[in-house]
Structures are given as structure tokens and as C-alpha cells.
Design goal:
Radius of gyration: 19 Å
Largest sheet: 7 strands, parallel
CATH class of the largest domain: Alpha Beta
Order of helices and strands: EHEHEHEHEHHEHEHEHEHEEHEEEH
Strand order of the largest sheet: 3-2-1-4-5-7-6
Bound molecules: NADP nicotinamide-adenine-dinucleotide phosphate
CATH superfamily of the largest domain: NAD(P)-binding Rossmann-like Domain
Number of domains: 2
Number of strands: 14
CATH topology of the largest domain: Rossmann fold
Shape: globular
Helix content: 25-40%
Number of helices: 12
Strand content: 15-25%
CATH architecture of the largest domain: 3-Layer(aba) Sandwich
């Protein structure tokens, strides 16, 4: 299938292109940009070794040449483009946040902006395959989950029936903030430091609560994210008052047949999932309390890789076809 990546110069766009280049059934027909139009991919992303020129984001041209488009744009910028692409019959995978939340009030609460048009929110399918299954065959718009949200939803879903409260301490690498350096997220400011941000108010709490509520689970989530002085990865430490054997039994039950999820005893290193689509969980306990550790690569399972996993499922192809299943750490 011929596909397009819009936002090709960004961290997530570049990662989607890298995965497409390794996928046996996908061909990158167009790489689109904004301020980088006219540059070669090899200029903005040397590691791709690809001289393809970044094109203007023209929906009519995309519709003429491509079956599907992966959008990796800043929050709040994709609605008009998505509306046009869907109208023109292009299958859209949006990796931003614009279509993740179903309730416009939640969009205001977590993003302080107006929601995308309701008819688009209504057709958008939010998919974490291990919890929701893949998109329906005739889905027109797929809302890909956030990176923290993916790890958190997968780490909390098995706790249904065991606890209604979870404390989540999270860390993320600097690539989670995108290619543009800004105060607070610039790597050179964080590489010799460490800080919490958005304590108890991070926007991903919204989509995690939504996907858990769809399963009938509405826990109180106390989430405190931190800026890790590393480039890639997400590590969560989830603390709950629940029996560890019961917790492990629920994880085993829910994820027994899930190829990408592995369960381990004790703490686990963030590095083990870097470069791969895998999700690893570790377990520890003391005196009736259980600690669950969760690690993923924010750019892969937390974004590009999960988008292609969903795409594979929607097309009826093998779920992990073309995707990296082994890590590259150290
Ligand atoms: N980074 C992660 O770990 C991660 C994980 C999950 C989801 N996401 C989501 O993926 C999206 C992209 O993230 P990123 O980290 O790749 O960001 P990024 O590195 O800043 O890239 C943003 C891209 O969007 C393009 N762009 C910027 N302003 C635009 C506009 N007004 N109209 C059209 N295109 C515009 C830029 O193109 P030009 O350079 O050509 O201007 C650039 O290619 C975000 O919504 C983010 O939340 C990111």
C-alpha cells in the first residue's frame, strides 16, 4: 500500500518512515512537511539515508497518490487536514492527541483547547491492540494513543477488581518532547538534572481513564511524570494496595496470548524495550503493597510502532509484521 507521512521531519514522523522502510507491504509515496518542504529527508533525518524530497501537505495530492496517511503533527493542528483527507477517502492514522478523547469537555480539561469536530471524534477509533483489539476493517480514522498512556493503560487494566486507586511515578526520555528544543524540555538542560512536571494533571490521564472506563474500570490515578535525562523510553512505577499474587494472576490472565507483553520478577531496566515494540512488566511486593514496573520505547510502542501494529491488524496482516521485536540496548 502506498502511504504518506505528514510531519516527516519530526521525531515521530521520522520513526514512522523508518518502520515503513522496513515493512514488506508499505511503500512511502509521500513525505510531507511544513517548514521543511523542499528539503531532502536525508537533510533533516540523516539516519534514514533517503534523498526523497519533503513535499507540501496538499490533501488532494495525498488522496491522488496514497491509500493512507500517518499524521505526526503537533497537538491541535490536524483537525482540518483530517477532515479533508477523510472526505477524500484517505485512511488516516493520527498520532497526535486531537482525536483521542471522545468528550469535548475532556479536551478542554486536559488540553485547554476546543475539540475537533464532533463527527470526526465520533468516527475516530482509539486503539491499544492488547486492550481494545485493532481497528475495524472499515475504520476511516484511527486515533493512536500517547506514549505514557500506552504504558499506563496496559499497566492498570489488569488491576480491575483488585484496587480502585493507583499511584504512578513515571519518567520519559527527551524525545517525547519532539524535535524543537524549548525551555524545560531541552536535552542539555535535563541531561544533568531531574524534575517532575504536570504533577497529578498530565493530559494522558484523560485517555487512560477513558479506555479503562470503557472496560468498566474507573480507578483514581495519581500520576506524577518526570523528565528523564535519557533520549528514549518510558518507565512507570505503579504502587497499589493489592496482593501481588492476585496482581500477577490478573496480568497473566489478560496478557497470556499477547506476543508483545512479557512479565518478570522484580525491577526491570528501561533499556530492555528500547528499539523494540515490546512492553515489559516487573513485580515486587512488601506487606500487602504491590509495585508494578512498566517499560516501553516511547517512539515505538508509544507511537510509531503501535500505529503500524494497528495498521497491520486493520489490514488483516500479521500483527507484528515488519516491526522490531528485539531491543538495541545498550
Ligand atoms: N515524541 C514522542 O515520543 C511521541 C509519542 C507519542 C505521540 N507523539 C505525538 O506525535 C506528534 C508529533 O510529535 P513529535 O515528537 O514527532 O514532534 P516534532 O518532532 O516536533 O515534529 C512535529 C512535526 O510537525 C510538523 N509541523 C509543525 N507545525 C506544523 C503545522 N502548523 N502544520 C503542519 N505541520 C507542522 C513539523 O514539520 P516541519 O519540520 O516541516 O515544520 C514536524 O515534522 C505529537 O502530536 C506528539 O504528541 C509523540
Amino acid at each position: 500500500m502506498k502511504v504518506c507521512v505528514v510531519g516527516a521531519s519530526g521525531f515521530m514522523g521520522g520513526e514512522v518512515i523508518r518502520l515503513i522502510s522496513m515493512h514488506p507491504r508499505l511503500e512511502l509515496e509521500m513525505a510531507c512537511g511544513h517548514s521543511t518542504v523542499g528539503k531532502k529527508l536525508s537533510e533533516v533525518r540523516p539516519g534514514l539515508f533517503w534523498d526523497k524530497v519533503i513535499e507540501d501537505t496538499d490533501p488532494a495530492e495525498i488522496a491522488k497518490r496514497c491509500d493512507a496517511a500517518f499524521l505526526t503533527l503537533p497537538h491541535g493542528t490536524s483537525a482540518a487536514l483530517v477532515e479533508e483527507l477523510v472526505r477524500l477517502g484517505v485512511l488516516v492514522y493520527d498520532l497526535g492527541s486531537d482525536f483521542r478523547l471522545k468528550d469535548p469537555a475532556d479536551v478542554q480539561r486536559f488540553y485547554k483547547r476546543d475539540a475537533a469536530p464532533q463527527q470526526l471524534l465520533d468516527i475516530a477509533e482509539y486503539r491499544i491492540p492488547e486492550l481494545t483489539g485493532g481497528p475495524r476493517r472499515d475504520a476511516k480514522l484511527v486515533a493512536c494513543p500517547g506514549c505514557f498512556a500506552t504504558a499506563m493503560a496496559l499497566g492498570l487494566a489488569p488491576l480491575q477488581g483488585l484496587t480502585n486507586e493507583a499511584q504512578v511515578f513515571g519518567v520519559t526520555g527527551s524525545s517525547g518532547s519532539g524535535i524543537k528544543p524549548a525551555p524545560g524540555v531541552h536535552h542539555s538542560l535535563r541531561s544533568t538534572s531531574f524534575t517532575a512536571y504536570k504533577p497529578l494533571s498530565h493530559q494522558h490521564i484523560g485517555e487512560v481513564s477513558q479506555v479503562l472506563a470503557e472496560r468498566g474500570y474507573t480507578p483514581q490515578i495519581d500520576f506524577i511524570p518526570h523528565s528523564l535525562p535519557a533520549v528514549r523510553g518510558i518507565h512507570l512505577t505503579i504502587l497499589v494496595e493489592a496482593d501481588v499474587d492476585a496482581v500477577k494472576a490478573r496480568f497473566n490472565e489478560l496478557y497470556a496470548d499477547k506476543e508483545l507483553i512479557s512479565l518478570h520478577d522484580g525491577p526491570i531496566p528501561l533499556g530492555m524495550t528500547i528499539g523494540s515494540l515490546r512492553v515489559a512488566f516487573g513485580f515486587a511486593s512488601q506487606g500487602g503493597k504491590t509495585v508494578i514496573f512498566a517499560v516501553i520505547d516511547n517512539l515505538l510502542k508509544g507511537g510509531s510502532g503501535q500505529a503500524i501494529q494497528n495498521f497491520n491488524l486493520q489490514q488483516g496482516w500479521p500483527e507484528t509484521e515488519g516491526l522490531p521485536l528485539t531491543g538495541m540496548w545498550p
